[in-house]
Structure formats: C-alpha cells, structure tokens
Amino acid sequence: MNNHKQSATALAASATLLLMLGTSGVAPTSAEDFTRFRGVDATGVANDHPALPSRWNKTENVAWVADVPGQGWGSPIVVGNRVFVSAVVADEENIKPKGGLYLGKGVRDPAKGMHHWMVYCFNLTTGKELWRHQAYAGRPVVPRHPKSSYAAETPTTDGQRLYVLFGDLGLYCYRLEGDLLWSQPIEPKKTNMDYGAAASPVVHNGQVFVVYDNKEASWIASFDAQTGNQRWITKRDETMSWATPLVWQNDKRTEIVVPGQRFNRSYSLDGKELWRFDGNMSVLVIPSPFAAHGMCYISSGYVGDAHRPTFAIRPGAQGKIATEGEFGDSDFIEWYQPKASPYNTTQIVYGDYLYTVYDQGFMTCHNALTGEEVYGKRRFSPKGSFTSSPWAYDGKVFCLSEHGLTYVIKAGPEFEILNTNPLDELCIATPSVVDGKLLIRTLTKVYCITRDE
C-alpha cells in the first residue's frame, strides 16, 4: 500500500469544501429527491431520518408494496412524490435470472419472443401506479448476461424530466407526468462475452451523459437534456467496462470520471480528455466511481484477478498521471490498495471508513483518508452473495444479498452484524433512500420501508 500525506493546509481546504458541499464533494439538487444510481451525490449515504428503520421484513415497517411487471435491475428514482422504475416484459418465458457468480459466457442468443420496454411511475406515499409507458416493443437483437436484464440501467432526472436508458436500444426522455418528449436510438453492438450494456446515465447542467463500452465502437456521449440532440461524442478504446460515470464537482473544476480496463479517464464537460492512467484494472470493470473527502474513488475487482485495485484520486490532474508500478509516486493518487476491490458492488465511504462488500459474502474496511486496513475480510452470517451496492444511514451500513436478506452492520472499526432483514426474493438492484423511506426493488416488486406509525 502506498500513501501520500496531504499538507495540513490542503486538508483544511478540503474540510471547508466538504462543509459547503457535503462529504461527496457534490452539491445536492434536493435533499428530498433520489436522482440517479446511488443518489444525488452518488455515494449511497443517506441523511439520517427518524422514520428510517433498521428492522423490516415482508410486513414489518412496510408502508406499501407495488408489483412491477417485467424484469429490471435499475434502482427506483424519486422526484417529489413520484417513484420511477424501468423494466422489460417478455411475451415468452426465457432463462430466469439467478444469483451467484457466472465465470463464463453470457446468454449467447437474444431472448425469445416479443419484449416490451416499459417505464412505470408510482405514488411515493401510497404505492399506487400513476402511469406506465411502453418505450419500445420488439424482439431483442443482442444477448445479455444471464443474471442481467434488458433494463439493467438506473434512470436519472434533473427534477424536471426523466431520462431512461435501455443501453442497447435507446435513451428516452419523459415529462414527470408521463409524456414522451424525445428519444435517441442507440445502435446495439457486440459486448464482451455477450453480457450486454449496464452503465446508467447521468445528467448535469442540461446534458445527459451516456457511456457505451463494447467490442466494436465504444464511446461516451452527451445529449441535450431538452431536445435529445447529440452535443458531442468521444471515442473510447475500451471494451470491458460497465461502470456508471461520475460528474465530479471538486474544488478545481467539474469533470466526468469514467473507469476502464485499459485506462481510467476523466473528461471535460465538452468531451475532451483531461487525464488518464493505466491502473492495471481488473479484466472486468463494474464498480462505479464516487467522491468523498475531496477525493474520487475508483476500483475494480474481478474475482479471478490477482490485482483488484482501489485508487483515491486527488483533483486537478492533467494528462498521464501515473505509471503502473509507480502509483505511489503520482501527485494525484492520494493512496492505492492493490487488493481491496469488489467485483459487482460499488464501495461506500461512511464517515472516515471505506467499506467493501465482496460478491462472495465478505466485507472489509479501510481508512478512507489513508487506505490503511482497519479490518480484513469478515464473512457475512448466514452466508450470502451480493450484486447490490451497500447504503448507509444512522450509524449503520446496509448490505442486501441476492437472496433478499439485508445485513445491518454497525459502522466503525469493528465488524458487527446487528440484525438481518428478510424479503425472500432475488435482489440485484441497489436500494434508494429518500425522505425517511427506503425503496427496495426485488425481482417482482418495490417495497417502501419506513417505520410503522
């Protein structure tokens, strides 16, 4: 492990910035909206609220349960009193998703029969369906990962419009009331091992950013939020990454951070590359970058790789910022750990601690400021496997297994499971937290969890 010490002046400046912007370094648009994958600031850390429980099951502390036809693994998005989710409904039965690791190829043939790419809107207070819209109907033309869905992406919103990405199909923009405003088709490409697309869109200052890494012609592009017109597109020589990009607003500038198997990169808001470095990343790059303590955290950890790195990046970089084997010599890598990253899940920084949830049922903890190990691998009991990313509030870190069991972990330097909460259904989507309500999406439902009155 390599470690750079910031000066007291730099740390003080970071602390001042954090007080102004919050621990993520991103100024939230609304404390009562959930606008993208892992929330407004992309950290997974929610505001404490007296209505947020630490115990639940299918009936306890459940305000409502909404049935969601079809299959989708995007998180619920919330604007005001509306909850949005996407899904794909198949007319014929196909291979059903299941948990666990798939160390091999995807579903080699497109799914059978007509499919309906759907968007649903529910009332946040009651769970009543407000509207549904069919974005597209047809037969899939690309295969997918056996655990994934043709609606793997989490929608995003700027508080005025809803942007729904079906990664191998198109980007769709709706009024919050359900009217389709515009759509942009996306030409499907062959992806690594036929796994399909999965990176979610993000919106910032009138632009919707989409990353599509594939084996034919990878790119990052910007679409005008009002019209859908493409503002710019930048080619990427990447093939094996599915991470959702981060719009990182730091004390130097605003930039778009995108990990990659060949290079981790940052782009300006007009698509120009700002910096890059070869992090000797895992062969498959899935965890999404996020910011905390004035730094950006980047990771990848395919289970079969010896090198599963986590990097904490300082703002202000330009050009090539590091060389493999010399990460500790970079002025812009605050610290680096060679074997501290998950495969599918995204890490979480809560307080001064970085928690990593491994797909095979372990958790580790590191000092978020220095990278030093706080505790090594601790096994979840009962055992479980994980794809959903952790979230946190009220001094606790929550980890949702693929079997629908949430482990409640006491935050801090000691690993302690406080309790477990069963929903007994396949769970791949990462939950959302807003205004005292926890929204957990299972294979067939959305649960609204809040303290019983």
Commentary on this structure:
The protein has 453 residues and is mainly beta. It has a single domain, classed as Beta Barrel (Lipocalin). The protein contains 1 helix and 34 strands. A hairpin with a 2-residue loop joins strand 19 and strand 20. This is Outer membrane protein assembly factor BamB.
Present the secondary structure layout.
Blueprint: E1 2-3, H1 8-21, E2 62-67, E3 77-79, E4 82-90, E5 115-123, E6 129-138, E7 156-157, E8 161-166, E9 170-175, E10 180-185, E11 202-204, E12 207-212, E13 218-224, E14 230-236, E15 246-249, E16 254-258, E17 264-267, E18 273-277, E19 290-292, E20 295-299, E21 310-313, E22 319-320, E23 333-337, E24 348-350, E25 353-358, E26 362-367, E27 373-379, E28 391-393, E29 396-400, E30 405-410, E31 417-422, E32 432-434, E33 437-441, E34 445-449
Protein name: Outer membrane protein assembly factor BamB
Signal peptide: 1-26
Keywords: Signal
Summarize the structure.
The protein is built from one helix and 34 strands.
> What is the terminal-to-terminal distance?
49 Å
Strands side by side in the biggest sheet:
1-23-21-20-19
Low-confidence stretches: 1-29
Structural domains: how many: 1
Pairing-aware structural class of the strands and helices?
Answer: mainly beta
Number of strands: 34
